[in-house]
Amino acid sequence: MALIVQKYGGTSVGSIDRIKNVALRVAKWSRAGHQLVIAKDIQPVPDPRELDVVASTGEQVTIGLLAMALKQLGLKAKSYTGHQVRVLTDSAFNKARIIEIEEKRIRADLDAGTIVLVAGFQGQDGLGNITTLGRGGSDTSAVALAAALRADECLIYTDVDGVYTTDPRIVPEARRLHTITFEEMLELASLGSKVLQIRSVEFAGKYRVRLRVLSSLSDAEQPLAVEANSGTLITYEEDTKMEQAIISGIAFSRDEAKITLTRVPDRPGIAYQILGPIAEANVDVDMIIQNTSVDGTTDFSFTVHRNEYAKAMDVLGAKVKGHVGAQSLVGDPKICKVSVVGIGMRSHVGIASLTFRTLSEEGINIQMISTSEIKISVVVEDKYMELAVRALHKAFGLEQAIA
Ligand code: ADP
Ligand code: MG
Prior knowledge:
It contains 13 helices and 20 strands. It is α/β, with parallel strands linked by helices.
């Protein structure tokens, strides 16, 4: 007998039929003797306190319905909201972070042979306010539950059958990965792959949660042994796989915008004078480029999340542009970031040059570049995003082998 946490995404519970299907699947695992904690997701609604109150209700409806469906199948099941379990979060409405999960109540139910259904995506802050965890937040609910309960495994059920070399909606030839290292998954998630929320991957790494992404749309009554080995397993050792590919995947994000201050007289402290007020306004900066020209002025460019673009432009216009003596302030929200990720980059050269050559052959101009040990990211005009992703996916040989 194992203790398993399972999470079903919004796509997996979108209709009564799908809820029934989830119930069949949960029943199968339960009848095989496993203890189960289920977290489920709805689409988040982005806004402050009252919206969190509203956004969290969809959750309650589905966990209640799922509990009823399980009882009809003759199983013991009990649903809980995040506040009932006590999923304690900070007070950042719409993007709260989980601080702690109380396990007492869940443990008692499990010991009594009951399947526990927990509303994902929601919690309660120290003052008793309802909070939600942001887009993809129930991935994090599930992993945090698994960590708190020291579960044997955490299964993330979704509408794809695993983690692919890139989003299969953009590249139909994308290939499912049987395993992916935790570090690569962390990069892919942080660079825009929406299949797992980045915080869930961080949590999994911190507590070494055994984490698997698999399909909720496959036949619910397929043999459990088949299902238990399906999908993609996130692994924590890197050198175990002989056939480790150099590149694991391509991520992309349309969520960014680029801002440039041109011809800023260059002197010590310029970066601070520009980015200090941005940080004070609580805007996160991603890529930064600065290069001083021979005439002693510099163009200073950086990217921010698109939601915070207007705020950043306001701050720069009001407090920074005149102060640092920039010639102009130019904003460009029509950009995207495309990233090539793989731990094989540590031991192989030529990945950057193949990336740049591929984009140049497609006539795509690179506006910014940033690299780390296991990734190369480029900023390009957003109308080229799909072309860039497809071309790179092909250039790195990531397609499915033709049978
Ligand atoms: P859920 O409602 O189950 O949380 P999401 O929409 O959040 O589902 O996540 C699943 C989607 O993530 C897939 O339908 C797919 O389009 C997208 N996706 C993006 N990148 C990848 C990737 N590398 N592998 C698999 N799916 C991906
Ligand atoms: Mg999701």
